Amino acid sequence: MSNFPYVGNGPGQFSVIPPLLPYKVGEWVPLADLIYTDLAGKKHSCPMLFVTDLASIPWIAEPVFNTVDTRIEGVMHDWLYCSNAMPRADCDALLKEMLLATGCDSVRASLIYAGVRVGGSSRYAACTGGPKREDFAWELMTPYEVTLYASAYKLSPPQIPAIQTIGVIPA
Q1: Nearest CA to 109 among 148, 67, 141?
Q2: What is the DSSP annotation of 100-142?
Q3: Which of 1, 24, 125, 150 could form a disulfide with 157 if both were Cys (CB 3.0 to 4.6 A apart)?
């Protein structure tokens, strides 16, 4: 059994908490898919190597909300916005559900929910049409993953320089 009651395969649980790799300043990428099963039993997935800021928190609110306990939910919420797979109100309601499921107190969860309801419309609108090339850490992908992601999200794959092998003598 996990030390975290919100890790598992049941309703209100994440299947795993993936390691996060620092990417660029203020950005991270999960190194495994993030899957959350909502209280109704529907699974929501965020793909590995999706670029996230973990939770967009205005600087004025950082002292109150800039804690680790809301970050994994922020990754999923960022992906839900990015993918435009569901209406914004549903994305925001799911964020609040995830916060409560992972032990965030109801006052903080309600304040965070109110914050995304008030301030999230421009970010959601910017994601119209689904993920963009800049939403993924292409240079961390294998050639197979590049092909897979480009196809799945209908994106042209970026030009990634080939990895140079040092010290190999050509035949």
Answers
A1: 67
A2: HHTT--HHHHHHHHHHHHHH-HHHHHHTTTS--GGGB-GGGS-
A3: 150
Spatial distance between the Cα atoms of 140 and 30, rounded to a whole number of angstroms:
11
- Say which residues have a Cβ less than 8 Å from residue 101's Cβ, sequence separation at least 6: 6, 12, 13, 39
Side-chain-side CA neighbours of residue 64 (13 Å): 12
Taking the C-alpha atoms of residue 104 and residue 78, their distance in angstroms, rounded to an integer, is 18
The token duo for 107 is: 């006052």
Residues 49-108 pLDDT 10s = 999 988 766 666 666 555 555 688 999 999 999 999 899 999 999 999 999 998 888 988
